[in-house]
Amino acid sequence: MKQLVEGFIQQLRHAIEIGERATVTFAGPPYANVVLAGMGSSGVGGNIVQSYVADKLSVPVIVNKGYSLPAFVSPNTLFIATSFSGNTEETLSAVREAMEAEASVGFITTGGELLRMAQENNMPHIVVPGGSGQPRASLGYFLVQQLYLLYYAGLLDDTFKTELSQSVNLLEEQIGSIKVQASALANAFQGKLPVLYASDAFEPVALRLQQQLNENAKQLAHVNALPEMNHNEVEGWQCPEKLFGQPVVLTMKTSYDHPRVRLRMDLTKKVLEQKKQDVLEVEAVGATLLEQMLYLVHLSDWVSVYLAELNSANPNTIDSINYLKGEISKV
Hints:
Largest sheet: 5 strands, parallel
Mean pLDDT: 95
Number of domains: 2
Order of helices and strands: HHEHEEHEHEHHEHEEHEHH
């Protein structure tokens, strides 16, 4: 897994090449909404894209993580399904509903049933490499191709291309610092419950860190966003007192945080420190929203593999996930 994390920068470069070479045409009408469907790493890629395009698209974008679709899906919907294997049962179910609703459907996959459906129905699709065998190690492919499909559908302008290129350059420049920070955070997380806070726009990035800690380091973690956390969870830091000291809080800060959210982060830190709770902070680097998102994503991935080493965990295995898939497939 460490080699795959090391290859993330090159993956982004390759993903851009794939997107540029894609011959994708959408023949649908002007879109009233966009649905990004996927589970796990495919789903969190959609969450990051949803947050990134929030101020760029004139239509609403939702991320669908489940078997069924909302009733508003119609011929005026752009539906993008992402699945590493192409056989994710929740995503396949959602695709069938989208096709029944006559939505414009696009696919991102390595193969499987999704690719068969796309080819059989002559639907827009982009095939990404599957050699890693690890969906969570393919986030760069998923995220970049979702942006390209939005671009080819006429919803997103080409500014993202420049920002992607700048992001690759930034990660190359910052990789040494990223690894040092990641190692320190992994040591702080060992034997603790990481509690991850970010602004609402960067909650998907905190979710990516949670998922990587779960799958790679085999460790639980918790995520919430500000300002919402200030309206409920902050009050929960009272009971049971015997658990205090077990969590370690990480606040992910960025220059895109609303000034009032930044103030709330600082005040929340004071509240938690009064309870003798450790509060760590990390500041995103980059000139654009996409740069800062990808900086924190890459930092998160390194934290997870370093923590896996500390936990003596095998980051390449997902026995519990495979068990669940196997048992569900029998029913």
